[in-house]
Amino acid sequence: MIIFRRCVFINHRDFQVNEQIRDKEVRLIDQDGKQIGIMSAKEAYKIAQERHLDLVKIVPNANPPVCKLMDFGKYRYELSKREKEAKKKQKIINVKEIRMSPNIEDHDFGVKLKSAIKFLKDGDKVKVTIRFRGREAAHTSLAEDLLKRFAEELREYGNVEKAPSMDGRNMMMVIAPKKQ
Would you say residue 102 lies in a domain? Predict the structure, then answer.
């Protein structure tokens, strides 16, 4: 009699497979999803060997634990494919920072505004920071007005996610792109 043993590498989910299942009794489900019944783990493992499949504990917290007959390598491959597919669907949002001083000139303000519009059109968030140096920190109201003006100019491209607030010697505001 030839016994086929599968070399199984456990991935980060820590599934218990084949001989690793130490429970006295398990509820066994076959590869089609039909319940075979409650039996000892050794009997379930023998059935798995006869069918050239793996015995995988899928619900360890149940009483008795639920085990399923399956090709574990194929199952892991399908899981990794699903994870990759989910990663592809995720949208990565970057936060771009624009720094200004409280006494910025109009032309410089326009240049910063154009770059913020470009970032918002690309789908990135924009963090607008005004850095205070020396005595400038006494005039926070000027910086707040400047940030409100900046937000007003960007109204059609994005919404203010975080209102202007002081953070140490900086005043900052976050603008998120509008959803289409």
Answer: yes
